[in-house]
Design goal:
It contains five helices and 13 strands. By secondary structure, the protein is of the alpha+beta class.
């Protein structure tokens, strides 16, 4: 067992779990150096900062998604600093995500300036060496339970990728010599895994 096999995420219990949505947003704004998420029970989750390699690889995923979106203009792409309020009340910040234009445009300006109540269609999580695999797998399942159609869990160290699709069993790919398709949710989008080595 390695350090990364452990669930080493810090979860805050107690009175702070009673924060309203507005209070949680303000807590995040007043502590910009902390990467905070919140689960459905309103427990606050401290996400460790990513190392340089993990950040570079997440950036590559974001870049490829942006290129595809520029060509198709079907929605909006977000990186890890964007938080989304999911239907179960949790606030999550995927490493990369995509929201259809109609869903995002239906939000009010006030909602867009906070953690909007919208579930991305696609989410991508890039595993850092310090991330436990079991919590990331559970996080992907929670995304699907909240309406995500396609999720990619990428583990660059092991060169494995797991594709999560709503209503289907996860599919693991054991090589970064391939691409991952987000069809039909994102028409024509394929994530090239080779640059993530």
């Amino acid at each position: 067992m390695t350090f990364a096999d452990l669930d080493n995420v810090v979860v805050l219990h107690g009175p702070l779990t009673q924060l309203t949505d507005d209070e949680f947003f303000l807590l995040c704004q007043h502590n910009p150096t902390l990467r905070l998420e919140r689960n459905a029970d309103h427990e606050i989750i401290f996400m460790p900062p990513a190392g340089a390699e993990s950040s570079r690889k997440s950036g590559e995923v974001h870049f490829q998604l942006m290129l595809w979106n520029r060509q198709h203009q079907l929605g909006y792409v977000f990186e890890s600093s964007a938080g989304f309020t999911l239907p179960d009340g949790s606030v999550r910040s995927p490493d990369a995500s995509w929201v259809p234009k109609a869903a995002y445009d239906a939000l009010t300006e006030a909602q867009r300036l906070r953690f909007p109540p919208v579930c991305p269609t696609l989410v991508v999580e890039v595993r850092s060496p310090s991330d436990g695999l079991a919590p990331l797998r559970r996080k992907m399942e929670i995304y699907l339970e909240n309406g995500v159609e396609v999720g990619f869990l990428l583990d660059p160290t092991a060169e494995t990728a797991t594709i999560y699709r709503h209503g289907q069993a996860p599919v693991e790919i054991s090589s970064f010599d391939s691409t991952l398709s987000a069809e039909p949710a994102l028409p024509g989008f394929e994530l090239n895994l080779r640059p993530l080595r």
